Amino acid sequence: MKDHWKGALAATLLMGATAGLPVQAQESACGTDRTIDIAEMTWPSAAALAHIHAIVLEQGFGCNVEIVTGDTVPTSASMINRGKPAIAPEMWTGTIQDAWEEGLENGSVEEVGLAFPDGAIEGWWVPRYTADANPGLKRVEDLPEYAELFADPEDSSQGRFYSCPPGWGCEINNAALFEAYELEDSFNLFSPGSGGNLDASIVRAFTREEPIVFYYWGPTAIMGKYDMVQLEMPPHDPEIWHCNTDPDCQPKGKSAFPTPPVIIAAASWVGDEAPIVVEYLGKVTLTSQDVSSLLSWGDENQADAATTAENFLRTQEDVWTQWVPEDVAERVRASLG
């Protein structure tokens, strides 16, 4: 009986001591001691979301978290085949439909939430001032007539279309549409090299009120800040789009971009080992306006993704505290000082 009392006392003391430890030391709070790697994609919204979730999961739930570099195609392939990264906070599945559906069917990945419940948009755009000055430019088919307006600085005999950086799913789609519209004779398909370079090119053109034609998506700070007009394409055709996303399929066709849900993706092992993490991600809701606001702050303050995420958590408590229990929220607040 005495030994039992001593054991109970030791357990009580241990529980009290553990309660005072940093949350990272309480493995049970997260559910797994495996590292949860989160993909930081190379565009601003996805990068900021990665850091928001990293802070909440590490500081609030006590998970071992690592931020890793990602992009749509390589991240989805690695998640499906290797279970790494564990989480992709902003996965655009429209460009990887076949592979992603196969991953869902074989149980290697799962969709645990919506990144933007109110939807997203992709397309080809020109500035409003360019559209107003050239009323005949309304459709993608009209571009060859305006190649000189968008002259390539490195090849004035061709126009320049600003496409996606390497590794983005839209790189494949833009190349297919470029072929379908037979733009090779009048335009160069220009790769900006990175998302930052694409943004810089767009901002420079708008600041100088120069013509530019480019691919872009929303919600983003740039789309919220600058007035732009989407060039018309035929309605989205799933069969055509399926061929356009397959480099080996011919012929390429004319079709608007799809508007599939932009999801929060996770490797299936996360739900098995850390269901509390999946439960948290399933409660995350950010409207396009929420995302545009946090990105606008980052843009105006020249802040990186981590700083932008911290500012969101400090200033938008009414949003993110709805996703977590109060004790988790308190630990996140404490970590932010």
Please explain how this structure is put together.
There is one protein chain. This protein has 337 residues and is α/β, with parallel strands linked by helices. It folds into 2 domains: 25-119 and 260-336, D-Maltodextrin-Binding Protein, domain 2; 121-244, Glycine betaine-binding periplasmic protein, domain 2 (D-Maltodextrin-Binding Protein, domain 2, 3-Layer(aba) Sandwich), CATH 3.40.190.100. Helices cover 47% and strands 18% of the residues. The protein is built from 16 helices and 11 strands. The chain has helices at residues 2-19, 27-30, 44-60, 72-82, 97-106, 128-133, 169-180, 195-208, 221-225, 238-244, 268-273, 275-283, 288-300, 305-315, 317-320, 326-336, and strands at residues 36-41, 65-70, 87-92, 109-114, 121-127, 151-152, 155-162, 187-190, 213-218, 228-230, 262-267. Strands 5, 6, 7, 8, 9 and 10 form a 6-stranded mixed sheet that branches. Strand 7 (155-162), helix 7 (169-180) and strand 8 (187-190) form a beta-alpha-beta unit. Helix 3 packs across helix 14, helix 3 (44-60) crosses helix 16 (326-336) and helix 13 (288-300) crosses helix 14 (305-315). The longest helix is centred in the first third of the chain and has 18 residues, at 2-19. It is globular and about 60 Å long.
Element layout with pairings:
Layout: H1 2-19, H2 27-30, E1 36-41, H3 44-60, E2 65-70, H4 72-82, E3 87-92, H5 97-106, E4 109-114, E5 121-127, H6 128-133, E6 151-152, E7 155-162, H7 169-180, E8 187-190, H8 195-208, E9 213-218, H9 221-225, E10 228-230, H10 238-244, E11 262-267, H11 268-273, H12 275-283, H13 288-300, H14 305-315, H15 317-320, H16 326-336
Parallel strand pairs: 1-2, 7-8, 7-9
Antiparallel strand pairs: 3-11, 4-11, 5-9, 5-10, 6-7
